[in-house]
Every structure is written in C-alpha cells, then in structure tokens.
Amino acid sequence: MSICKFTYPQIMRSTAKPYAIAAGHEKTAQAAAEILQQGGNAFDAILAAMMMSFVAEPLLSSPGGGGFLLVSGPNQAPKLLDFFSDTPSIQASQIDPEQVDFYPIMGDFGTRQQEFHIGHAAAAVPGVPAGIFKAHQTLCSLPLTAIAKPAIEAANKGLQVNHQQAYVGMILKPILASTTEAKTLFNNYQSGQVWQNQQLARFLDTLSTADHNWFYQGEIAKKLAEQGDSLLCPEDFTDYQCAVREPLTLKLDTHQVLTNPPPSTGGYLIVEQLKRLKNRHDVAAVLEAMQHADDLKRTPMTEVTRGTTHMSVADSAGNLASLTLSNGEGNGQIVPDCGFMLNNFLGEEDINAGGFFRWTQRERMKSMMSPTLILGDQHQYALGTGGSNRIKTTLFQVINHLLNHNKTLKHAIEAPRMHYENGHLDIEPGFSKDELATLKKTNPIHTEWHNHNLYFGGVNAVQTGQTTTAVGDFRRHGCGIVGV
User: Does residue 260 register a pLDDT over 90?
Assistant: First the structure.
C-alpha cells in the first residue's frame, strides 16, 4: 500500500479506490493513514487522528475539551455524536466571581487582541473521552489500543513543534505562563523544538484499555472535582453522556448537505445562509446572506467556541467522517499526572453571551462548530473548519463555491474569503476589482487584509466519487493525504 503526500498545496488525487485524509497537522493526518493501512475504517482513522491531535495540536485539541463527529457510510446511517461540554450542576447565582479562581488574560493576535477568562472556575465538563468511547463502541472495527498507538508513541518520543502551533503558543502565552504546571509542560513549546508529553502518553495508554466509567466515575473525575476552585462536582462527571443526534439536512439540487443540528447553532446558520442565496450566487448575494446570519446570531441561541481544529477522513469503502474539536484557549490548569489542559468554555465571552456565571445548570453548551458532509450521486465531501465565529461564513462560502460555482475542492478552499459581523466586513485579498468595489460600496465599514490569514478559518476537506481528493487549508498549514 502506498501513500502520496505533499505539504503544499495539500491536494492529492488518485483514480484508483483510495482513501483520503485532511487535517490541521501532518502528524494528525499520518496517524489516520497508519490506521487505514492496518485495515481500519474511516471511523477508526478519525479517532486515531483525534488522539494524535492531542500531541501535535495540544493548544487546540485536548481530552479536556469537547467536539462533534459527523459520520455516514454505505452501512451507516448519517448521525452526529455530540460530546461538547456540559455546564456545572451548581447554581450560577450562588457563585461569587470574586471568590473563585477566574480571571482575565489578553490574547494577542497581532492586529487584534481578545480578552479571555481562565482559572479553575472557567472549566466546563469535558466531553472528549465520552466521545472517544461512544465512537469506538458504535462505529469502529479495530481495538482502541491499536487506534491509540500512534499518538502514544508520538507523545513518548516527542514531535517537532511546527510554525503554526508555535504561533498559537505565542497568542496563548499568558495562559501557558499562568500556572507552574502549564509553564513546565510547555516550557520549550517553540518552533523547531521537540516537544514530549509522557504523562499524556500514559493517560492515552490507560484510556485505550478502559471505558466511560474509568474517566467519569474514577480517580480522574474525583481529582478534577477537588481541584482548586473548580465548579465541577463528581455528579457532573457521573451524569455526562455523549449525545447522538440526527444531522441537520438541506437539499441543494442533487446534493444533501448534512451538518451539526440544534442545540448547537453553527450548522443552522450555515443552512440559513445557503437557503438565502436562492438563485443568486454573486458576492453581493453572499454578503447579504452573511448579514442575515449575523442578525440571527444576535439571538440568545447562538454561542461561539474558539481554539478549534478539524479533520476529515474518507475510506475506500465509502465511509465518511468529519470531526471538529475545541479546548477553547484552555484554562491554564493541567490535569494532574495526565498531561493535558482543561477547557475554559465558561470563560469565553462569546459562549456566555448573557454574561459570566449565568448558565443553566447541567445543560449541553452550544457551539459554532459544524462538521459537515455533502452527499451527491457523483461526489461526496467531508469538511469542516476551526475559526470561532468565522466557522459559519467560512463553510458557507466553500460550500457555495463547490455546489453553485462547480469549483474543484482545491479552488473552493483557496478562494478568497470575507467575514461579516456586527456591521464590519473583513475581506481577504484575491477578489476581482468589480467584486471588491461591490463589497466596499455595500459595506463602507470594512477592513482589507493584505494576506490570507488563519483568522478566516482552516477548512480541511476530502472528496470521493469520480475522483478522490484531500485538501488541507494553507491558511492554517493543513495537510492532505490520499493513499492507495
């Protein structure tokens, strides 16, 4: 079995019956390829990619976070696994913010700065372990020990930190320096350095032979509930379950677009934008659809998650898997003896639109994350992106390019993007003179970016059917692999 792989432009094709993988890091994609070479299916491979992302992309992906997995196949009806975080059972009104470990830090994105809140009290119930166990129990063909092996080996031996991950580390530097444990774990997290995490390797090794109760009813849950000023109690872990949902579906001509359903909101906003286009697909119509979605976003139902990564897998049997993960920015607290940071979902202003410490008890938190599948007679796609509140506009534009403009997957992802929010339009370079004039006239309050930027997301997507293609978004140094 052979693999053809490039790092740019992250696109590979084959005319045989190959598999395809796209992810935010080369090692994440390679872990999935290794599992497919061993005879695993797309669902085995996506779990291997997920666990490798804990090692290769530890500031975006963590067992302490949450996510969504959307799957489909010849013998698998489409379904979505929702393992995003739950809010605590404690009544928010009982909490005095001045008396808990909860404080602001500033993330520096260069041209923009963003305030985040971290500390023990910023963590919601982690859902990733439950997602792993549920996916393995219901979808996978290989033992979890085999699926976890690439990530365990990488964590033990160490991986070289690439430029993209080092850049994320610079943005989140105040968080990585916020506790002694975080400083120790990430003290050499710089581009070109080899980063090891043997505690994480031991955690994954134990997880691979365990079950749901090991994490949610055992010593780890007890440690987390007793950690500092944590708002979580043992019952929050005991009661947590991965939810299985029917995907939100939109029919567009000969294609079915499947995405994340309510209670999360990203998929709903993508579908609303696509429906708004009707028979107009020009930039003015695209902007109008974005403005409509932004109006909808202002309702209380919408929440945003930052610090995201995405991976997509298609196997030779026709199975598709689309997975988006987030840890927020992390709360600065390293889980004792486990080598990973907890989420800070309770400290993200966009997720807590009504204000901090105002959540409903024991409720599944909403997210903009939107793993997506497109099913058609000639082509099938698995795609998704990180990018916080840009997720809805990024995926909308890529889907529009694919289905309404008949662009190749490569060109759909490389095409210039824009993002509208709160009356302001951000515009990537690459639009034609006429298109740019239309956008400026329609929206006088705008910013023209001089480069393609990770701000506009990182769509990692695969295509099967008449051809098989894998594209990792160059904006976030994504990687695509096709193997035969």
Answer: yes
